[in-house]
Specification:
Blueprint: H1 2-6, H2 8-20, H3 22-29, H4 35-50, H5 57-66, H6 68-90, H7 95-103, H8 105-116, H9 124-144, H10 155-178, H11 184-207, H12 216-240, H13 247-252, H14 256-268, H15 276-306
């Protein structure tokens, strides 16, 4: 049981399943508040939730001061910039198209890792598997929502959402490459508190200060979103810093997020119903994950056979 809980694949799947629940939580929360302010409060609470597990405020502060440039860079990319672009792009782009663009995230991250991290190269087989998974994302997105008329599809919104993938890619690479000496809990807590605080302050002149009384379901959604962010991001940062874990392979599991999110939406949200094209997309995503793991196993076996014997 202990080996399962610490297994990289198990933890990657767990983090992605947690992230997949965010769609429903955000839909509920945004009925009562503005996007950037909601995101800012969510990440501040998430960062505070992790504080008790960082070894004390004194240790946390000392690590932050020592590694300030890296932590600030990750806070800006992974929290502030990424979620500011995400919520802005969603307001300018149909939901199905937004899901397709964001679903391309693992491809962007894999390409950045190819050029920025030695030993994390894309092969033609991995590229084909990634494209297969992305095809599944497109089918799931079409199966959940119909694209609106071409006049409503703004190129600006698409470019903004592509910026989300770029920010996420750089953030993942920086965590894997530059944050080796920082405890993942301190890194995730600091980056979320700083990034969330910046989002909240930025939201006030942009959206105004929301003082409307909110019902219990808003606070329930906020509590769950804060918890899942704290748990999923801490898990992800831990995995990115593990020796031997490739950024491109790890991020491939993110194809599970729209898949599981669609299933959850069908179960919980009224008006959401599965279509055959979405189910076909889910099967393609599942097959691509199977193919990637077969490919990874064979690659490891080849490395073992060719490595010098001591």
């Amino acid at each position: 049981m202990k080996s399962l809980i610490t297994n990289t694949t198990f933890l990657a799947i767990l983090a992605c399943l947690l992230w997949s629940t965010a769609f429903v939580g955000v839909k509920i929360g945004l009925e009562y508040t503005t996007p950037l302010q909601f995101a800012g409060i969510r990440f501040i609470i998430s960062g505070l939730m992790i504080l008790p597990f960082t070894g004390g405020l004194r240790k946390h502060w000392m690590v932050f001061i020592k590694n300030r440039p890296v932590i600030l860079k990750i806070a800006f990319l992974n929290t502030f910039f990424q979620y500011m672009l995400f919520y802005t792009g969603l307001t300018m782009t149909p939901a199905a198209l937004a899901a397709i663009v964001i679903g391309a995230g693992p491809l962007f991250i894999a390409m950045m890792a190819h050029f920025m991290i030695p030993g994390d190269r894309m092969t033609w087989i991995k590229t084909l598997i990634f494209l297969m998974g992305f095809t599944g994302i497109i089918l799931v997105s079409f199966g959940r929502n119909q694209l609106s008329s071409a006049g409503e599809v703004g190129i600006t919104g698409i470019l903004i959402l592509l910026g989300v993938n770029v920010a996420s890619g750089f953030g993942n690479v920086f965590v894997a490459r530059d944050a080796g000496g920082i405890h993942p809990f301190i890194l995730s807590s600091s980056s979320m508190i700083i990034g969330g605080g910046a989002l909240f302050l930025f939201s006030i002149p942009v959206e105004g200060f929301n003082t409307v009384d909110k019902p219990l379901e808003y606070y329930g959604a906020l509590a769950w979103l804060s918890f899942l962010s704290a748990a999923a991001i801490s898990i992800w940062f831990t995995l990115l810093k593990r020796p031997g874990v490739k950024v491109s392979d790890l991020n491939f599991w993110k194809f599970l997020i729209p898949l599981a999110g669609a299933i959850l939406a069908w179960i919980i949200l009224p008006g959401e119903r599965p279509a055959w094209i979405a189910v076909a997309g889910m099967l393609i995503i599942a097959l691509s994950l199977v193919f990637l793991n077969i490919y990874k196993r064979r690659s490891w076996q080849r490395e073992l056979r060719t490595s010098p014997k001591i």
